[in-house]
Queue: 2 jobs
Job 1
Amino acid sequence: MELAYKAGKVILEASGQMKKVNVKESFADLVTETDKGVEKMLFEELKKRFPNDRFIGEESANKEPWTLEPTWIIDPIDGTTNFVHTFPFSCVSIGLTVNKQSSVGVVYNPSLDRLYTAVKGQGTQLVEGKKEPVTLRVRDCSSLSEALVMSEFGSQRDDAKKEAVFRNLEAIGWKCHGVRSLGTAAINLCSVASGHADAYYEFGLHIWDMAAAALILTEAGGYVCDTKGGPLDMQSRRILAASSEKLANEISETLLIHLEMERD
Ligand code: LIP
């Protein structure tokens, strides 16, 4: 939590400043010096406290393989596009997995001063500004026709992704109350955990976008799985999250294209 606040301060101070923006896999896949600087700071600080643990970060050139060992999985800025454009939904995401199971998740959106935390088996808490922490719980919603659904266009720009995004959006969008897209997987998941939305699905995200927030959702009573149903595979680059298993199943059956991508 302390490091999330520290990272958030750096993100907030840099937001809206002139910054060099580089691209990664497509012209819409952005990275800045702030992403790299925050990741370096978090790695250094966590390594001081947990020298024997392993580390995976979005911006590291050589990614360590994900193993059963305790592993910190970090996205220094989830929602880099929002950060570049000053849309106030970016966050730092810090997850810890042990035996490949998420055991700690911390997500902090500095623009709204919202800190989401979860420890396996101990529920999810939100600290907003100076307010007392509150325990989060998903909203009761078991039907797509009553659901507010979140999804993302993502940052890939190839034809297969385009077809999957728009055909799935057409299938889901007309059957639910509405579709929302905040531009950050972690905050989308936290929004379902908070009861602000009822479900979220995406193809093309990465392990660091979900490692912390998937636990935040399940500890708030939500359900996560693969888009085809079955256990979530955090390396598969796809996720379906909902306030209940029943709603997740309905969305899974409604999605038309379950994109297969190169694994993380
Ligand atoms: C982004 C996600 C977003 C997704 C993009 C990208 P980044 O993470 O959170 O929801 O649609 O594909 O992965 O690049 O801002 O850390």
Note: Helices lie at 2-14, 33-49, 80-85, 159-173, 185-193, 207-210, 213-219, 245-254.
Job 2
Amino acid sequence: MDDKKQLEQFEAKIAAGLKIEPKDWMPEAYRKQLIRMMSQHAHSEIVGMLPEGNWITRAPSLRRKAILLAKVQDEAGHGLYLYSATETLGVDRSELLEQLHSGKAKYSSIFNYPTLTWADIGAIGWLVDGAAIMNQTALARGSYGPYSRAMVKICKEESFHNRQGYEIMMNLAQGTPEQKEMAQDAFNRWWWPSIMMLGPSDDKSPNSDQLMRWKVKMESNDAIRQRFIDRTVPQAEFIGLKVPDADLKFNDVTGHYEHGPINWEEFFDVIKGNGPCNAKRIKDRVEADKKGAWVREAATAYAAKQAKEKLVA
Ligand code: 3HC
């Protein structure tokens, strides 16, 4: 079959809502887009462990510590599924990690901001995981089987992360004036980066058209951002926090919130590597990788030994 016919069949399958599986024919551009997006997503999960992991020893109670520990472990698991899913496209995990460690690969802009107080852990769960779920529930309906299936379990776990973050913020907001101030301060610092992490505005998003045509992305960056804002503003009001956007207003006609201008200059600067924590995140990740080398070697040696014993038996 020639490429044109295969492309037609591929697109017909997608239009019919069927999944594309690893051994199916796919255009090279589809494979490349998936590797780019899925690996960036995998990197985001494991880099995201760093700012939160930093607070495990400083959690204010045993309950909070156990919850945060579980959350950070969940993120490691998400990284694992996503690297495995990316490998189904014929790329090796070590190659992807090399791209991350050398600074060639992107990961979510959001993890280049510092976590200054305990309230930041609440803000991350509520806002960052909240924004991630908005995006990922849409991705769970996407066309590539291994990616969309990974999203189902990830979204369930992110939903727990989102609630634990909101609960931290709610408790702080109902606490002493100092605690409420801490919650508001964290909210002020994380609101705009959370809105930006959903990707540049549609007119500045070069990949969206192709990704939406092939149903990798089901909705545009701006559409998901709007949904996130519409859902989060009432949550903030409910716990008595003020959204740090003087221009924010509800439009009765459209039924949506209208927000002030987004600082896209800051966003593009952060994804170029110039955010407050980019250099530290990569340094810490490279160090963590080095420290874990003996575990990988031991696991590989054990697997080889087992395979040899099976062969002899
Ligand atoms: N951070 C860093 N880079 C970003 C970005 C962000 N928040 N948003 C967009 N970019 C990059 C894109 O990767 C692209 O760069 P490239 O072409 O060099 O690869 C460029 O900016 C232009 O953006 P586009 O809108 O054209 O890119 P996409 O169409 O890929 O859309 C996206 C961006 C919405 C983030 C999409 O890639 C996506 O949905 N990715 C999967 C989800 C994901 O990665 N989530 C990470 C969130 S963190 C997380 O889940 C961890 C959890 O613990 C909270």
Note: The radius of gyration is 21 Å.
